[in-house]
Description:
The protein is mainly beta. It has helices spanning 22-28, 222-225, 276-283; strands spanning 31-33, 35-40, 48-53, 59-64, 68-74, 80-89, 94-99, 106-111, 115-120, 129-132, 142-147, 153-158, 168-172, 177-182, 190-195, 202-207, 211-216, 226-231, 236-243, 249-255, 260-264, 270-274, 291-298, 304-310, 318-323, 328-334, 341-347, 352-357, 361-366.
Amino acid sequence: MFEDPPSSDEDCPVPDADSCKSKKLKELFQCQIRSSSETAASLKRTCGLHLALSNDGRKLAVGLSRMAIQLYDLTTNGDLVLSEGNFATYESAIRRTKFFESDTNSLMVCTEEGNVYWYDLRIGSQPVHTFDDTSEGSRKTMTSFDINQNDRVICASTEVQKCADSFLLFFDIRERTYLGSYWECHSEDITNVRFHPTNPDLLSSGSVDGLINVFDISKPNEDEAMQTCFNVDDSIESINWHKSPTDQDWISCITTTNNFHLYDVETQDTLAEFDRENITKSMKRTSSIDCNVINTHNDGNGGFFLLAGSNYNKGECLRSLKYDNKHFLPHRNFLQNKQIIRASVYNEQQHCLITTGEGGLITVWHCEQPTDQTSPSEVDINASKNLKQKLQISHRSKPY
């Protein structure tokens, strides 16, 4: 079974198509990318839902809808070589997988049932350790997790529990112990957690309740740890950290309605808001109902891009848009994509994008250095709204 049902062309009253002629499209999307390698995860029907790439760009972990992890090696010429076709299987859905920052042989996998498994790939598929919820109350259903920059702390997020709280659970990796939790920060399922890429103490979380919270986990309790709260007014699917041209911290989010928001963490300003229709126009497509906003990736050159596709015709259209001064500009056109994309990772040093999705394919795209875009802006930002940014916090000390 799939976690997300495959999209159907029947949802769209008219077929999706390019909104300009092919000559104009090539002028706008100057980087035309073809896949350098592609492999099927299984001969049986499966969906690729999660990807993790090691820091050296040589190892790839793929989380499948059939609750299994596969491992691949990436060769220097960009080929994918299957190293473990059935590395590990689980009793519940995989929620995320990630390599350590400092050790390409250490891999962690979070599952829905409430476990985070730590593997050393040099010794096989038996976990080195399993981090599980030992807090009070019933076992919690996990939704996501992340590892901080110095590989010391795990944060796992949960669904709303019977007590009407959702939790951020913290674990010490070296001591292999449960540290404690935050439980007042969100009122609905927490869908995503992301540690800052360079500061090991900064953590962001996003939720179905529409809030993005930023914490300093070095503080003694949740009240003091809360640094910033953004109210997106929409259910959040994923979040990510970025840097501004002046080296300020930005946070972006993609909502379940395929909208995009960008915030300045220091000033707490809303920098950008793009709805699904505007992103569709920037992609040069005609049907916003088919627009599939997938992920954001830092490009290694001080900027970031948005990866988006069309669900029409099995996801054949896949494009990236580069963020530039409150606009999204045409960036790359990924040709002859064969599936609706559900997950992607990007290697900033090698400019390599890897995607997977509903067709169970793992595809490698080696991206040329993008040329500077000189075309006029394609989308204007909607006027920034005065969003509610305050969260009522009760004063109760926490165990972490």
